[in-house]
Each structure stands twice: as structure tokens, then as C-alpha cells.
Amino acid sequence: MKDRFGRSIQVGWPEHHILWIEAAMTLPRAERNVAFNDIAEMTGRGYASVYYKYRDILREREAAKRRSDLAAQSRAHQEAAASVRA
Q1: Which of 32, 61, 72, 79 could bridge 27 with an S-S bond, Cβ 3.0-4.6 Å?
Q2: What is the predicted pLDDT for the residue at 46?
């Protein structure tokens, strides 16, 4: 896709680019920033774009953990209520 100036626009993130970001997430902070720069260069995106995707991935993981924790709490409450009834 091209913008009005003829520059290429990338829409979405291929899976292997996301895998690169997830791999970079395991690195210490300074190395992670260098990896984000490398990913930006390899993908033709800006550093900010890579960093924002990193933040999106973190938010998705945190939301999934919250949902999992709430489901576990709900199961524990249901089990406790069932044992009281029995």
C-alpha cells in the first residue's frame, strides 16, 4: 500500500516480526533497545512503531493473566460454595 506521497505503508505485523519482538522482550533493557532498533531497521519501520507493538504485546499478556486469575478465583469460589453445601 502507498501513501499520497508514494511511500510504502505497512499494514499489520507478520508473525515472524512479532516473534522477533517477543524474543527481544527476554533481553535486559539495554540489549532490548538495541534489538528494537535492529528490528525497526530489518522491517522498515520506525523504532517507535516497534516499541508501541512491544507495549501492545505486554498489555495483551497482562490482560490474559488477569482473565486467567479471575477465572481461577471464580472456580475456587464455586468449589468452596459447593463444599459448604455438601
Answers
A1: 32
A2: 92
How far is 35 from 79, CA to CA, in rounded Å?
Answer: 46
Distance of CA 16 to the CA centre of its chain: 13
- CA proximity to 36, closest of 3, 26, 48: 48
Residue owning grid cell 479471575:
70
Helices (H), the chain: 15-24, 29-43, 47-85
The count of C-alpha atoms lying within 13 angstroms of the C-alpha of 18, restricted to the half-sphere facing its C-beta, is 10
DSSP code for 64: H
Q: Which residues pair with 8 in a beta bridge?
A: 2
pLDDT digits (tens, 9 = 90+) for 42-84: 998 999 999 999 999 999 999 999 999 999 898 888 888 888 7
Quote the CA–CA distance of 52 and 19 in Å, as a whole number: 15
Enter the pTM of the model: 0.73
